[in-house]
Design a protein that fits this description.
The protein has 144 residues and is an all-alpha fold. It has 2 domains: 1-81, no CATH class; 92-136, no CATH class. 28% of the residues lie in helices and 3% in strands. It has helices spanning 19-36, 48-56, 101-109, 115-118, and strands at residues 92-93, 96-97. A two-stranded antiparallel ribbon has the order 1-2.
């Protein structure tokens, strides 16, 4: 959100409220879109060539990404997101990650080998079935 009176940015979890950094991202993305429209360069409504030239020839007015440090990279922020692998997040019970029954019922019924990658066997069922048996995998009930 940009404050109406002073043009400062707040709430940006990607670029630390840096409006100049956001301008670089938007202008660089605009160039990418214009390149994808290059086959439409004859369309007078799009005016692709002129729009591209405006950005490319005016770096002060239209700054673009110039280094890896400028990238739009998501950096984990515990204040705003609990995922992945955060015990405060839903989907964990007693320190164990819970995979939904919706998913596991489907993969186990189809003998899908991805079951073994996505989940761990239910400890109580390991007395009856080996960890290589689809029947040892049971999902948790999804919350609504």
């Amino acid at each position: 959100m940009i404050a109406a009176n002073d043009h400062t940015l707040s709430g940006s979890i990607f670029l630390g409220n840096d409006l100049k950094a956001w301008q670089k991202v938007v202008n660089s993305f605009t160039l990418r879109v214009l390149v994808s429209l290059s086959k439409k360069s004859g369309d007078p409504d799009l005016n692709v060539k002129q729009a591209f030239a405006n950005i490319a020839n005016s770096p002060t007015k239209y700054p673009v990404l110039t280094a890896n440090a400028d990238n739009l990279q998501y950096v984990y922020n515990a204040q705003f997101n609990n995922y992945p692998k955060n015990p405060g997040n839903r989907g964990f019970t007693s320190g164990r990650e819970v995979v939904s029954a919706t998913f596991l019922n489907l993969t186990t019924s189809l003998n899908d080998p991805r079951t073994f990658i996505a989940a761990t066997p239910a400890p109580a069922l390991l007395a009856t079935y080996p960890y290589t048996d689809q029947r040892a995998y049971v999902g948790g009930q999804p919350r609504h």
